[in-house]
Design brief:
The complex is a heterodimer of chains A (113) and B (113).
Chain A: E1 4-7, E2 10-13, E3 19-25, E4 31-37, E5 43-49, E6 56-57, E7 64-67, E8 73-78, E9 87-94, E10 103-104, E11 108-112
Parallel strand pairs in A: 2-11
Antiparallel strand pairs in A: 1-3, 3-8, 4-5, 4-9, 5-6, 7-8, 9-10, 9-11
Chain B: E1 3-5, E2 10-14, E3 19-21, E4 24-26, E5 32-38, E6 44-50, E7 56-58, E8 64-68, E9 73-78, E10 87-95, E11 100-103, E12 107-112
Parallel strand pairs in B: 2-12
Antiparallel strand pairs in B: 1-4, 3-9, 5-6, 5-10, 7-8, 8-9, 10-11, 10-12
Classes of the chains: A mainly beta (113), B mainly beta (113).
Chain lengths: 113, 113
């Protein structure tokens, strides 16, 4: 039972570099989410998707882009990394909002120097 | 939009003592409420959830929470803390109207021997 898998688990980037974080879920969930976690700020929603081919902005979308070409995958891209994007990134998926909970990946720790 | 407030970013209890972690929410619709736990360097895992029905909800590891609509609260309790309970706890609310989960800023629980 893999659940939600994030790759990579750790990454160090230089300012201005780009990268893509991959999230894969094997639960056939419709909804997927990208959050960032920073000390004292809880989890803040970056982007989310309610189905294959759809994406929407969350609370803090600036500097990030996403794609959901396949139902099981949700990619988060940083086009030009900035030190303010140093954070732990979590992907989550859910069957639907409401009564069903979200399932989380193990996180990606990203440092931008 | 929903919001979640967790009072106390750090809570410290002695082993065997009562654990009480506070969560208040704002919602214009009947909420669905969740508590998650995060152990160091891990993702979030569900402790318990309230959707409808009985307002006292039991979860894993001896935790329970009570939904009080009049107080817009969903506090988490455990009668007797164990060292293994040391972790960060997040309260969350889901809003089906917006396909999102909203998280509080988290409470770190420290358990003293």
């Amino acid at each position: 039972n893999a659940g939600v898998t994030q790759t990579p688990k750790f990454r160090v980037l230089k300012t201005g570099q780009s990268m893509t974080l991959l999230c894969a879920q094997d639960m056939n969930h419709e909804y997927m989410y990208w959050y960032r976690q920073d000390p004292g700020m809880g989890l803040r929603l970056i982007h989310y998707s309610v189905g294959e081919g759809t994406t929407a902005k969350g609370e803090v979308p600036d500097g990030y882009n996403v794609s959901r070409l396949k139902k099981q995958n949700f990619l988060l891209g940083l086009e030009s990394a900035a030190p303010s994007q140093t954070s732990v990134y979590f992907c989550a998926s859910s069957r639907a909002t409401g009564t069903t909970e979200a399932f989380f990946g193990q996180g990606t720790r990203l440092t931008v120097v | 939009a929903q919001s979640v407030t967790q009072l106390g970013s750090h809570v410290s209890v002695s082993e065997g003592a009562l654990v009480l972690l506070r969560c208040n929410y704002s919602s214009s619709v009947p909420p669905y409420l969740f508590w998650y736990v995060q152990y160091p360097n891990q993702g979030l895992q569900l402790l318990l959830k309230y959707t409808t029905g009985a307002t006292l909800v039991k979860g894993i590891n001896g935790f329970e929470a009570e939904f009080k609509k009049s107080e817009t609260s969903f506090h988490l309790t455990k009668p007797s803390a164990h060292m293994s309970d040391a972790a960060e706890y997040f309260c969350a609310v889901s809003d089906p109207n917006f396909n999102k989960f909203y998280f509080g800023s988290g409470t770190k629980l420290n358990v003293k021997p």
